[in-house]
Amino acid sequence: NNNNNNTNNNNDNNTEKRKQKKKRNNKKRNDQRRRENGNNRQGYDLVTPRTVHFVIRSTDLKPTVDFFVDVFGMKVLRHEEAVEPCPITCNGRQGKAWSKTMIGYEKEDIAYAIEVTYNYGIFEYPIKTGISHIAIGVENIEETIEKAKKKGYQIKENKDSKIIIGPDFYQYAVVKRVRIEPIDHVKIRVSNLNKSLDFYINNLKMKDLTKRFKVPNLNEENYAVVGYTLSQVPIYLSEENEENVVVQVTDYDGRHAIAYPTDLLNEIYSEIDKKLVVHDLRINSEGLTLAIVKDFDGYEYCLVSNAFFGFVNEATDYVGPRWDLRRKWIDQKLSDSEKGKSS
User: Fold this and answer.
1) What angle do CA 276, 282, 286 make, to 5 degrees?
2) Across the strands, what pairs with 341?
3) d(CA 56, CA 203)
4) Which end of the chain has fewer CB atoms at under 10 Å, N or C?
5) pTM for the complete prediction?
6) Strands (E) located in the chain
């Protein structure tokens, strides 16, 4: 009996030692993840992946900026001009000089943002059947709709929702704000819901939030909501059931950015089917680890390390575009009859 008792005690001790070792290793790993962004002044949870921003295109930047500012009360967070096309096709596959304007409600370590990319010399994008809408929560829906109407934007009123057809025909669902994060969700059309769920859950490590995340004014059957936590901006997947509707994704549909702890980002990249890799894993000039991947429908995702938050916090100056310099640059490329076009 004594021998049995000693054996049991040893087993218990070994089990406890393993638990303590695992706990120490987890703490060490989480501490490392938090150190990846020493400039994270808000103390954002750097252990949990986070949807960061969505990229859209603009053919006329000033009306687009004014739309977000005047209709939704957002502000310009930062603006960048680039003479050379982005090496990881942030501006699409246009091969043009371009600009990037980050627009949102708070700094990017606090809230979700919209990245507006403008390609010099591109005045139209083919629109297919990719992104459905971006839903934005507001305190007063009717007041927001009236602001959009006064600026001349068309309003699409469905039975259960109101949608503003914004600049470049992007659609913005106006919903009642029910949480701290003002941007409610991003809705995309998918060709196979089960296949999409497998990609987002098993490849991007998201969770199925369908039963937990209440989508305002929802009146659909074949859908799912995926994301990391209920406080973030999730992706609303909607399978098209209409005949002859084929999901077609183009440069117009932009891309989604997601921030990860570096070790998890490396793990995701090592496991993903390389046929879905758009740009290989790399460390860029700012020291950020990143890769561009896509789902089987063609929606692109920029996977970036959490060091991103420190970089963008330093870059956030709330200064918008220099319209006079942009006017000069655009007009240099236009014929006499076209001068004054775009902004």
Assistant:
1) 135
2) none
3) 24
4) N
5) 0.85
6) 50-58, 75-82, 98-104, 113-119, 131-138, 154-157, 162-165, 171-176, 183-190, 207-208, 223-227, 235-239, 255-260, 277-283, 289-294, 300-305
Three-state DSSP state, 64: helix
Q: Which is it for strands 50-58 and 255-260: parallel, antiparallel or unpaired?
A: antiparallel
Contact (CB, 8 A) for 291 and 274: no
Closest CA to 315 of 76, 53, 45: 76
Please tell me what DSSP assigns to residue 166: -
Cα separation, 291 vs 309, whole angstroms: 16
pLDDT at 233 over 80: yes
* 8 A C-beta contact, residue 85 and residue 123: no
CB 222 within 8 Å of CB 241: yes
Q: Quick one: CA dihedral 184, 193, 306, 44, positive or negative?
A: positive
Q: Which residues pair with 134 in a beta bridge?
A: 172, 186
- For the chain, the distance separating the N- and C-terminal CA atoms, rounded to the nearest angstrom, is 87
CA distances for 81 relative to 68, 85, 318, angstroms:
20, 10, 15
Q: What is the pLDDT of residues 79-132, one digit of tens each?
A: 999 999 999 999 999 889 999 999 999 999 899 999 999 999 999 998 888 999
